[in-house]
Structures are given as C-alpha cells and as structure tokens.
Amino acid sequence: MSTLTVTHTRTHTEITFANPHLVCDECGVPVPAFHDRERCGCDDPTWNIPCGHIGVHSVCQSWGPVDGCCCMAQLGHVPHPALT
Question: How far is 71 from 21, CA to CA, in rounded Å?
C-alpha cells in the first residue's frame, strides 16, 4: 500500500512495509514505511519514514510474508521489543 506525503516542494510516495517488526539500522526507531524514489519519480534518495535514515532489519526472527510472525510455532516464544 502506498500513501502520498506532501512536503513544501512536492508530493512524495510512501510505501508501507508488510512486516510490522522493522526497525531502522542506524537509530532503532520503528519503520512502518519508506520513501520510494522510483515510484515517486523524484531525484530524492530512498529513506525510512519517520527517521530519514536508510536500512532496516526485523526484530522478529521468524516473520514471513505469508504467515506473519511464527515465533510461537517455530521458536516457542520470543518477546519482541515494544514498537512505539
């Protein structure tokens, strides 16, 4: 799913991640979406929303696009950090 964000100069396209357990590689902030320069058609780089850095990783070891979080089934239970 994508949404549009209006800045002072143009409207940018945001792409929402399916994985709700993604955090920024640099600052650890939860990252629900990113700016997609190819879909947007602008020259701005790709960046994480809301922090503006690049790169994410999942705090869920077993998340998959079909079944979502499978930690209980695969690993017993893994407490995920609270994403606020």
Answer: 12
